[in-house]
Amino acid sequence: MGFVLFGLTGGIACGKSTVAARFREHGVEVIDADQVARLAVAPGTSGLAEVVKAFGEEVLRPDRTLDRQKLAAIVFDDDEKRLRLNKILHPRIAGRTMLLAQELAERGEKLACYEATLIVENGMADAFRPLVVVTAPEAVQVARVMSRDGATEAAALARIRAQMPLEEKVKAADYVIENAGDLEATLRQADEVLEKIRAKVEAGG
Predict the structure, then answer these.
(1) Model pTM?
(2) Residue 28 phi, psi (nearest 5)
């Protein structure tokens, strides 16, 4: 039986991190793409140097670390700039992810989870099967973004609608967890999905 790295994705404020934390509670190692991305642009890395070369010194904080919010604002509604950033980050994130996965496999893990927002958008769904997609009603997403980030309703909606529609992600999913706000129900679904994935892995499927 080989090593399986399954995917976990969803839209903004859908509760992906809640599900990832639940998987961790059940002993599943989770590779967080956001953390990997932070390491890819840490001070002294070629990733940070490339980002500064592409977008200028203004994306740096006074302590020479990357100001992620400032960079996000620059690329948010500019497809060309976002593409340029992705070309810098994605190969580095992919490389680090595969290295971490290899380490887990060599350690004897049979199963691990890759948590990332852009699995479907980047055409990577088939690389992380089975794929788990966490969804939430748009109104719930809006409320969470407003509460979490202090955003206005209009700003929250803009961020949500800038992403791939959730129904597109659901089409690519093997399992869907609906997180409408009842934490117990979400955790119960997470447990059921993990049980099914483990059974599939044990069966060698």
Answers:
(1) 0.89
(2) -90, 125
